[in-house]
Amino acid sequence: MPTRAAFRSFLSLAETTNRLSTRWPSVVMGVVFASAAHAQWTVINLHPRGATESRAFGLDGLQQVGTVALGGVSHAALWTGSAETWVDLHPPSATSSDAWDVSEGRQVGRARVGGHDKPSIWSGTNASWVNLTPLGSPSGAANAIHQGVVFGFVAIDGWNHAGAWTREASSFGDIHPAPPVILSQGDDLDGETYVGVTFAPADGQNHAALWTGGAASWVDLHPRGALWSWARATDSGQQVGWTHLDGQARASLWTGTAESWIDLSPFWAEESWANDVKGGRQAGSVRFEGTYLACLWSGTAESWEALPLDLPGNWGDAWANAISMDATTISVAGWAHNLDTDRLEAIFWTRPIQPFLIGDVNDDCTVDAVDLSILLGNWGPWNPTSPDTDFTNDGVTDAADLSVMLGAWGGC
Ligand SMILES: [Ca+2]
Ligand SMILES: [Ca+2]
């Protein structure tokens, strides 16, 4: 039988991996990347003046949420598109708080009160804070909200149970799977499906989990041969997360079953993590030569694209934690390491949705001399920190890629 200590170490791993943000090394030395010419991305630094750290964890079309550290204390935070719009959601009775997700003007997360994290919901102000902890449970977290339904977990008899709420603590509905599963956590929902992680003592590892309704609907998404796995987000039939396989974390995509697993990790990546999915696009980070690159995918490892950090100053590690799409715009929330201030700062990326045009390296809807010049500057083995001019996905920019570009010459 595994010991209680083993479970504690799982909980510790869970906390570390689920909220990597909170354990982010503060002194990671990052490489400074030349800013790639991605004309269409608007990059906004959400970091409020006077804060010692900030990170954006979630967003919808209008609002961004996360955490802002003031004097070393995490405060749940809300933005509407710029650093100046920052609203402090921190309940006065809490010793720390974070906002993980937002939908239709409601924000969810956790607030630490009396030594325990309480699942929490707000509607735009700290005065609106509601503690969602059901009777009989000491703690939990509200990790996601979609169309008024909140998803997360609470501790019951010492173990976390995944479950959903409406807006009152008493509405908690437990979807914890039957034994041998002893622990489950909910991370995201999309109206039809719920994802998170489960743990059973038999193999001692966490498994990516999917539900379509109550406890009996639980599907184990764990890929064969993996050490552990975690499902972080779900949307329109796709689930994303991480799988630990062959000694590294790999960004992962599923479509409802363990067998559907797709490895999103580019061949050159040391490790990768997919944190969110929306409209067929996945957001996350890839580690290359020790540095984290915020990125998007469109369903395959080859579709990897870096998110630029076209901001004043010098920047290192970057992390994309959430993606949102409406009819015209893609938005991404995350954070990056400002090397000048040695702070993590919340970052908000947006760009118009436009047709994908192969050969259009700088995303300006035209394949022209600017793109040709970038391609010629990249000639030879492809470096993931450079603009992607390897259209043939063979790891080198050469005559074959030039031919693809010339074939696409012109506008969208
Ligand atoms: Ca172009
Ligand atoms: Ca090539």
Give a brief outline of the structure.
With 412 residues, the chain is mostly beta strands. The chain contains 3 helices and 32 strands. The strands form 9 sheets. A 4-stranded antiparallel β-sheet has the order 1-28-27-26, with no helix packed on it. Strands 2-3-4-5 form a 4-stranded antiparallel β-sheet, with no helix packed on it.
Give keywords.
412 residues; mainly beta; Methylamine Dehydrogenase, Chain H; Type 1 dockerin domain; 2 domains; four-stranded antiparallel beta sheet; 3 helices; 32 strands; 46% strand; globular; disordered N terminus; binds calcium ion
Question: What does this protein look like?
Answer:
- By secondary structure, this protein is mostly beta strands.
- The protein has 2 domains: 4-353, Peptidase/esterase 'gauge' domain (Methylamine Dehydrogenase, Chain H); 354-412, Dockerin domain (Type 1 dockerin domain), CATH 1.10.1330.10.
- It contains 3 helices and 32 strands.
- It has helices at 4-18, 369-377, 399-407; strands at 42-45, 53-59, 64-70, 73-79, 87-88, 96-103, 106-113, 116-122, 130-131, 140-146, 149-156, 159-165, 173-174, 183-189, 194-200, 205-211, 219-220, 228-235, 238-245, 248-254, 262-263, 271-278, 281-288, 291-297, 305-306, 315-325, 329-338, 343-352, 366-367, 380-381, 396-397, 410-411.
- The strands form 9 sheets. Strands 1-28-27-26 form a 4-stranded antiparallel sheet, with no helix packed on it. It has a 4-stranded antiparallel sheet with strand order 2-3-4-5, with no helix packed on it.
- Strand 19 (238-245) and strand 20 form a beta hairpin.
- The protein is globular.
- Mean pLDDT is 89; it is low at 1-39.
